[in-house]
Design a protein that fits this description.
The protein has 160 residues and is of the alpha+beta class. It has six helices and four strands, in the order ααβαββααβα. A hairpin with a 6-residue loop joins strand 2 and strand 3. The relative contact order is 0.20. About 4% of the residues have low confidence.
Length: 160
C-alpha cells in the first residue's frame, strides 16, 4: 500500500510538472518574448525566469469522523486560511484534486525552505484537526506563478 502511495505521488508530481511545462511552452509559443527586468526582479526570478518554491501535497488525514456541519465548518476555515495565505503572498497556487483518493490537493508556497512552508501549513485548521496531513518538497518552477493570484482575482466572479 505504501509503495502504491509513493508511486501515485510521483506520477502526480510528474503530471503537474508536465502541465506547467505545457502551459509555459504554450504561452511562449503564442507571444513574442519580451524580457521585463523589473517584473522578473519583483517576482524573484533567476536568469531563466524560475525560482524556488515549496510544494505541499495534502493527503487524507486520520481524523475525518465529523458531522456534516462540523466538516463544512472545518472546510470553510480551511478555505479562509488559503485565502489569507494567498492575500499575504505566501501561497501562489492551491487547489484540490478532483477525485476521492488519498491525495486531496496541493499548495505551492512562495518560500525557499521547507521549514518556512511547514510553519505556514501549521496555520491550516484542517491540518491542525488531523483531517489533512501533508508532504512538503522543495520545487523549482516559473517565477510567473507569483502573478497567478492577481490574475485569478480578475477572472473569478465569486469568492471561494
Amino acid at each position: 500500500m505504501q509503495l502504491n502511495t509513493v508511486f501515485n505521488a510521483k506520477i502526480t508530481i510528474s503530471l503537474i510538472t508536465c502541465l506547467l511545462c505545457v502551459l509555459m511552452v504554450s504561452f511562449s509559443a503564442h507571444s513574442t518574448p519580451q524580457f521585463d527586468e523589473q517584473r522578473a526582479k519583483n517576482a524573484g526570478a533567476d536568469e531563466y525566469g524560475m525560482k524556488h518554491y515549496v510544494m505541499a501535497f495534502l493527503k487524507r488525514g486520520p481524523n475525518r469522523d465529523r458531522t456534516q456541519a462540523q466538516a463544512e465548518q472545518l472546510q470553510r476555515a480551511h478555505l479562509d486560511n488559503i485565502t489569507r495565505l494567498a492575500n499575504e503572498g505566501k501561497l501562489v497556487l492551491a487547489g484540490p484534486f478532483l477525485h476521492d483518493g488519498e491525495l486531496r490537493g496541493i499548495y505551492v508556497f512562495d518560500v525557499t525552505t521547507v521549514e518556512e512552508a511547514k510553519a505556514l501549513t501549521e496555520t491550516d485548521p484542517a491540518i491542525q484537526a488531523g483531517s489533512l496531513v501533508l508532504e512538503l518538497l522543495p520545487w523549482y518552477g516559473s517565477a510567473a506563478l507569483t502573478e497567478v493570484n492577481e490574475l485569478h482575482r480578475v477572472m473569478a466572479k465569486k469568492d471561494i
